[in-house]
């Protein structure tokens, strides 16, 4: 027996995570580059002080006040004329990663199948592994959009209990066509759930609706969101979902006791009171994204269309060499996605200028860029 007595299938596996390096320009984890204002920080500090006075008690395990606040926020994205989202349709946890793990704990598991479509978020197979669910990855089309006919065929063949689909997709930035959501919900039926992961939903381009518009039409639809990206709260660890109240209810069976600390609840509520400020940079970041896509294309590179706050670009014969050359210039991007591609998060104008300057260095050395693969 080797020590420690780790599960067989976990041996030798490297933990998930982007390198956390101390660099001048960190453009690798899709954070919002703009932090909270002094007024927001003061309100958060006051909320934490108030929560601290009651830390001898366990927090509200149903986090009702926070669910109300999140429901109000989500109601901005329902279809015109549709009923607002209610607290009973909302569930929160420590990041949407925990929300999705809870979903698989409740709805996946031994003998059940989870489906997603690659290239996509690399955590999905890990949730499946950790909940002993079978994982099946379909393929996206060459332009990274979802081939709906192939997706429906796969769903009909595999009968998954959970389908995980980000919109916009990470790492490609690709949004899901609205008709795909309805078609998949119908193909999945009452035996499963379609989870549309809208971690980057707030960055979607004008004219791309949120899956929240379809929440009342399909009771097997779950939409997840996070405060980590557009909401400028990656350090907070707060993710949430909107779904049929019966789904929220079921998750309560698998959540750990008091999973959401009083401090987290207080900070998230205080941040929600500053929603407009915290989301204030989203329009500028979208414009910066569109400019970045256009600039990279002008340099002759391939760039995937993006509805997110990052873009996937390439292709490089040796992407690791390009990643390293950018890092040498102080710019950290992410080596992720299909072979030959790299992903850059959208930062401030100064950060993007540094990225472009570093890219010029790369492109002036064809030996490094290596031409197209
Ligand atoms: C960043 C990200 C999340 C959010 O994770 P949190 O745990 O909420 O920080 C979820 N899904 C995708 C696809 C992401 O890229």
TrEMBL record:
The modification N6-(pyridoxal phosphate)lysine is found at residue 229. Its cofactor is pyridoxal 5'-phosphate. Keywords: Amino-acid biosynthesis, Aminotransferase, Histidine biosynthesis, Pyridoxal phosphate, Transferase. One of its GO terms (molecular function) is pyridoxal phosphate binding. Its EC number is 2.6.1.9. Residues 27-355 form the Aminotransferase class I/classII large domain. This is Histidinol-phosphate aminotransferase. It comes from Nocardioides acrostichi. InterPro entries: Aminotrans_II_pyridoxalP_BS, Aminotransferase_I/II_large, HisP_aminotrans, PyrdxlP-dep_Trfase, PyrdxlP-dep_Trfase_major, PyrdxlP-dep_Trfase_small. It comes from the Bacteria. It is an enzyme of class 2 (transferase). The keyword Amino-acid biosynthesis applies. Pathway: Amino-acid biosynthesis; L-histidine biosynthesis; L-histidine from 5-phospho-alpha-D-ribose 1-diphosphate: step 7/9. It catalyses: L-histidinol phosphate + 2-oxoglutarate = 3-(imidazol-4-yl)-2-oxopropyl phosphate + L-glutamate. The gene is hisC. The keyword Endoplasmic reticulum does not apply. GO terms for biological process: L-histidine biosynthetic process. Homodimer. Belongs to the class-II pyridoxal-phosphate-dependent aminotransferase family. Histidinol-phosphate aminotransferase subfamily.
